[in-house]
Write a structure and sequence with these properties.
Layout (H helix, E strand, L loop, with lengths): L2 H25 L4 H10 L15 H24 L4 H7 L3 H12 L6 H21 L5 H24 L4 H7 L5 H11 L4 H7 L7 H29 L2 H4 L6 H13 L5 H18 L23
Helix pairs in contact: 1-4, 1-11, 1-13, 2-3, 2-9, 2-11, 3-7, 4-13, 5-7, 6-14, 8-11
């Protein structure tokens, strides 16, 4: 992976690490399923100015369903029923090994021994952090968060298969998928008016304006900028090389919680975070021997994808 793209992946990790604080603020006011739908609904007006990406509807809907709807529905519900913000940022990154495993199984992507070492190193650091924080979370919220991580992994594969010419357009257009199912589930499980009443009371509630700030961050920065860059990187490199960078998100989340909220990470977490960083770096390295380029027009050569 080129140094510039590695820097972009690190930037996405920072955006997504800070996003967990924004989500915690937003969920302090909005019901979780409604908030999951609202996150993407506010992006729909932008589609009037953005052409639909030239990708099959199958992959666009799949990306929107797994990455946009299911991932955040599971995550938001888990955080509402007791999943600590820092631990949520950690467990959600199980998407990285899920992505690598699914890419190898379904897309037949090859993984180098160095990448395997990097992934295992990063996962070991993540497990160490999880073990240290496990006493702060019940089992059900953790399992629900893992379901969100698995959904994210499937969404990564859909984005890679879509191979959008303009990844930002794909990121914006998945906004057509989550709102209706999320609002329907919210009406069913949270009450038909709970979410809309929370939205109507923003100006009067002491948590309303901060919740709007959290919504703006998660919709504009985390979704448009972060997910747009992430989709771009997935289009350039195998999923096994991009996914490990998501393991940096909990390290960023712990650090920002320390700087912004005054939460002091335990020395065990700091040491485990260093292990995660090392593993991500190893997992993103290119193999020393690269295959010779395939001549244009030969079987397996890259070319324009029919849309």
């Amino acid at each position: 992976m080129h140094a510039r793209d590695r820097s972009l992946a690190l930037f996405v990790a920072v955006l997504w690490g800070a996003n967990f604080i924004a989500l915690d603020v937003g969920l302090g006011h909005f019901p979780p399923l409604f908030f999951a739908g609202l996150r993407f609904a506010v992006l729909l007006p932008l589609l009037l100015f953005v052409p639909r990406p030239r990708v099959p509807w199958t992959w666009l809907v799949g990306y929107g369903l797994f990455f946009g709807a299911l991932q955040f529905a599971f995550l938001f519900v888990a955080m509402r029923i007791g999943m600590p913000t820092g631990l949520a940022s950690l467990v959600q990154q199980a998407s990285a090994p899920f992505t690598v495993a699914l890419a190898a199984l379904l897309l037949r992507e090859r993984i180098s021994p160095l990448q395997v070492v990097g992934i295992l190193t990063a996962v070991a650091g993540m497990v160490l952090i999880g073990w240290h924080r496990a006493q702060n979370a019940a089992l059900l919220p953790v399992l629900v968060t893992v379901c969100g991580a698995l959904s994210w992994a499937v969404g990564n594969l859909c984005a890679r298969k879509a191979n959008a010419p303009n990844p930002l357009h794909l990121t914006l257009w998945i906004a057509v998928v989550p709102p209706l199912p999320m609002f329907a589930l919210s009406a069913l499980f949270e009450g038909p008016t709970a979410g809309w009443e929370a939205l109507a009371s923003v100006a009067e509630s002491p948590t309303g304006w901060s919740a709007l700030g959290g919504l703006a961050y998660t919709s504009l920065l985390a979704t448009i900028v972060g997910s747009g860059l992430w989709t771009t990187l997935l289009g350039r490199y195998p999923a096994s090389r991009v996914a490990p960078f998501s393991l940096l998100v909990p390290v960023v989340g712990f650090t920002l919680a320390w700087l912004v909220l005054g939460e002091r990470p335990h020395p065990v977490e700091l040491a485990a975070g260093a292990v995660v960083v090392t593993g991500v770096f190893l997992g993103s390295l290119q193999r020393s021997r690269r295959p010779a380029p395939v001549p244009a027009g030969a079987p397996g050569a890259p070319g324009p994808v029919p849309r």
